[in-house]
Design a protein that fits this description.
Layout (H helix, E strand, L loop, with lengths): L2 H16 L3 H15 L3 H13 L3 H14 L4 H13 L3 H14 L3 H18 L1
Helix pairs in contact: 1-2, 1-3, 2-3, 3-4, 4-5, 5-6, 6-7
Length: about 120
């Protein structure tokens, strides 16, 4: 596949994820993975498609790969935390979301952290 074809396939997969059509996005992303598997943007999109298709363990691995490639990626930490939250792994989720919120202190991240803290308080209290 040419680099133009790879970019086109990536953009198609992005569009499909945005439309909440993760299974189609995963198919569209396959040729991109064959060429650019170790690009953080590719792994992040792969993780989002897995997350939206409820393949939580695969999403977790993709987000961990993004963080391995770019430890400063606050969004990868946020979505990793959300993925862990969906698996009921609240303490691990809190750790990742707290780090994301520290790296990028915006209201949405703070709200995500508050939600996890509230769920932990209900569960443990």
């Amino acid at each position: 596949m040419s680099s133009e074809g790879t970019v086109e396939a990536f953009r198609r997969a992005e569009s499909l994820v945005a439309q909440r059509r993760p299974w189609e996005a995963l198919r569209a992303l396959q040729p991109v993975l064959d060429i650019a598997e170790d690009k953080p943007s590719v792994q992040l999109l792969l993780g989002r498609a897995y997350l939206f298709s409820a393949q939580f363990r695969r999403a977790e691995l993709a987000f961990l790969r993004v963080i391995e490639l770019d430890p400063s990626d606050h969004y990868a930490r946020l979505v990793l935390g959300r993925t862990l939250q969906r698996q009921g792994r609240l303490r691990e989720a809190r750790s990742q979301v707290k780090m994301a919120a520290t790296m990028h202190p915006v209201p949405a991240y703070q709200e995500a952290l508050g939600e996890i803290n509230a769920r932990l308080a209900r569960r443990d209290g």
